[in-house]
Specification:
Blueprint (H helix, E strand, L loop, with lengths): L2 E6 L1 H7 L4 E2 L2 H5 L3 E2 L6 H8 L5 E8 L6 E6 L5 E6 L2 E2 L3 E8 L5
């Protein structure tokens, strides 16, 4: 079993709770949903969510995904998991809320 992680703002996740699947904005703009491996989470939070205040970290069990998962190098050369399609809710096995201190 492989686990990957997706970071989302609580208000964005709230909109998709009652729908059959989740669609990140990046699915429209880039063609996939950005995810990361556990060891990459802290760097992703620092780089992209520094002033978010609060985020949700979705733990995704890859074997339950209905959409295609591709592990690809990022612009920095590090490999990241990308979901090419919507995220079905039953693939999300855990949701953790994390406070992100605002940097002034």
């Amino acid at each position: 079993m492989m686990l990957i992680y997706h970071v989302v703002l609580p208000e964005v996740w709230e909109k998709f709770k009652t729908r059959p699947s989740y669609q990140a904005a990046s699915l429209q703009t880039e063609g996939f949903i950005h995810c990361s491996f556990e060891k990459q989470l802290d760097a992703v939070l620092k780089r992209y969510y520094r002033n978010a205040g609060k985020v949700l970290i979705l733990t995704i069990e890859t074997e339950k995904l209905k959409s295609k998962l591709v592990i690809e190098p990022s612009t920095g050369g590090e490999d990241f998991p990308h979901i090419y399609g919507r995220l079905n809710h039953n693939a999300v096995v855990k949701i953790v809320e994390r406070a992100i201190p605002k940097i002034s």
